[in-house]
Design goal:
Elements: E1 2-9, E2 15-24, E3 32-39, E4 47-57, E5 60-71, E6 81-88, E7 94-97, E8 99-110, E9 116-128, E10 138-145, H1 151-154, E11 156-164, E12 180-183, E13 185-186, E14 197-198, E15 204-205, E16 207-213, E17 216-219, E18 225-231, E19 242-251, E20 257-265, E21 270-273, E22 296-304, E23 318-325, E24 343-348, H2 351-354, E25 361-369, E26 375-376, E27 381-386, E28 394-399, E29 405-411, E30 414-421, E31 428-429, E32 433-438, E33 443-450
Parallel strand pairs: 25-33
Antiparallel strand pairs: 1-2, 3-18, 3-24, 4-5, 4-15, 5-10, 6-7, 6-11, 8-9, 8-10, 11-12, 12-16, 13-14, 16-17, 18-19, 19-22, 20-21, 20-23, 23-24, 25-26, 25-29, 27-28, 27-30, 30-32, 31-33
Length: about 450
């Protein structure tokens, strides 16, 4: 045991004013630094909204259709897909329903003057049974049309989004994950349709968690606390920094989900997974959504020692604990790691580590015109983006000067994406985007050609 002077860091990079003397075990060796794990505010989860379109026939409400939006539904792998069901609030019977699927994608681009512009592109995919999900910039606008003669649909009270692990063998059982739901009809506790009331509002906001029955739903709410400990091991020994994560009172994942810790670099969007969570006995918590009846996980632990070729811990900005669908690429083997949207706990990497990260570099972009690429092209928009998949982080943009050059200083060392926007009357000779590595404390040059 040794006495260490430790500073606890808060979320979003703000440091608490006071440090405390803490007795800390250091069996690994080297100085130890701690960071507090705290709930993320505001909590972001997958979202479902709905609007009901109905009329009255023979004294009872008839639902014509439901329209709405599904957002932040992470892409699923293989045969896994999201599927809509209408559920009866009296007998809990369920019926799958198809939906008109319009994919809406929001992108940020540059105009000819190098200014950032936001555009929305839509794609009508027609009537579909399944939705495969989309990244942060994508959302599903859906329309479910009800048959006026289908008694199951007309008796429905809930619209539920399920995760089908195998869309070729769809099922609606107690074991089927049902992470999103919205109630659109009040059946007044009777099977008589004439006393029903359809919930009418511009926007009915759904819930995220586990829909078990019309009488039992578990809405996800973030909670928990803990710490991350970082050992800054002497690099001359050939060892690299190691971290351990200890959390308590973590909410049980929704059915079909599990907890996955990530190291995140908010500057560039680069992420890397940090093992799997385990309980106090060392058993995996991958199936904590189905094993046990407790609403919280009392103890959750993980350790991480990066391989020699991996990016060092000091080059990240935060440790983030996120929910992942079991049927999605969560990162342990995926070549491109895109974490889920729901980060419940987070900790800032301690400053004594991040102060050791490589210094920023300079990126110089040259734009030339003509077959020989010898004439400078001024006033061409250039954008620099992080190369990571998490945030698609925008770093900087500007136009080339009279010499056809755009210089960017203070760019984080590592891989970045460089994008050129063709000026009016010109076309870009491919490629129009290049990925380059910015060296620490030095510069790199990228050249584009226009005609």
């Amino acid at each position: 045991m040794r006495l260490l002077r430790l500073c606890t860091l808060a979320i979003a990079g703000a440091a608490l004013a006071a440090c405390s003397d803490t007795i800390t075990d250091t069996p690994i060796g080297g100085p130890a630094f701690e960071a507090r794990l705290a709930p993320v505010t505001p909590l972001r989860t997958p979202e479902l909204t709905a609007r009901t379109w109905s009329r009255t026939v023979d004294g009872g409400p008839v639902v014509d259709s439901i329209t709405g939006v599904v957002s932040f539904a992470k892409p699923l792998d293989g045969r896994a897909r999201y599927r809509f069901y209408v559920v009866n609030g009296i007998d809990a019977s369920a019926l799958p329903v198809a939906h008109v699927q319009i994919i809406e994608r929001t992108d940020s681009t540059l105009d000819a003057n190098g200014s950032v512009q936001t555009s929305v592109a839509t794609q009508n995919r027609g009537l579909r049974d399944y939705y495969s999900g989309g990244n942060y910039a994508t959302r599903l606008r859906y329309r479910v049309t009800f048959s006026p003669t289908d008694s199951v649909q007309q008796a429905g009270a809930w619209l539920v989004v399920t995760i089908q692990a195998d869309s070729t063998l769809p099922a609606y059982t107690a074991a089927t994950p049902k992470p999103l739901w919205v109630r659109f009809r009040d059946q007044r506790g009777t099977a008589t349709r004439s006393d029903d009331s359809v919930l009418v509002a511009d926007t009915l906001r759904g819930s995220f968690g586990t829909f078990r029955t019309p009488l039992r739903q578990e809405v996800f709410a973030a909670r928990g606390s803990g710490r991350a400990t970082f050992w800054d091991i002497d690099s001359t020994s050939g060892q690299r920094p190691i971290l351990s994560l200890d959390a308590s009172d973590l909410p049980r994942p929704p059915l079909g989900y599990f907890w996955q810790p990530y190291l995140v670099d908010a500057r560039t969007g680069v992420t890397t997974p940090v093992g799997l969570l385990r309980n106090a006995t060392g058993a995996s918590l991958f199936n904590a959504d189905t094993v046990g009846a407790d609403s919280v996980i009392a103890v959750a632990r993980a350790t991480y020692a990066p391989a020699a070729a991996a990016r060092p811990i000091r080059e990240f900005t935060a440790l983030s604990l996120r929910l992942e669908p079991k049927t999605a690429s969560f990162g342990l083997e995926a070549p491109v790691i895109v974490p889920g949207i729901t980060s419940a706990l987070s900790a800032t990497i301690p400053a004594p580590l991040t102060s050791q990260r490589p210094g920023d570099g300079t990126l110089r972009v040259l734009v030339r015109r003509g077959v020989q690429a010898g004439t400078p092209e001024p006033n061409v928009g250039i954008a620099v983006l992080g190369a990571g998949a998490d945030f698609n982080t925008f770093l900087a943009s500007r136009n080339t000067d009279a010499s056809g050059t755009a210089s960017f200083t203070g760019i984080p060392a590592g891989r970045v994406r460089v994008v050129i926007i063709a000026p009016a009357g010109r076309t870009v000779v491919p490629p129009s985007e290049q990925t380059v590595t910015v060296p620490s404390g030095s510069d790199v040059t990228v050249t584009f050609v226009v005609n």
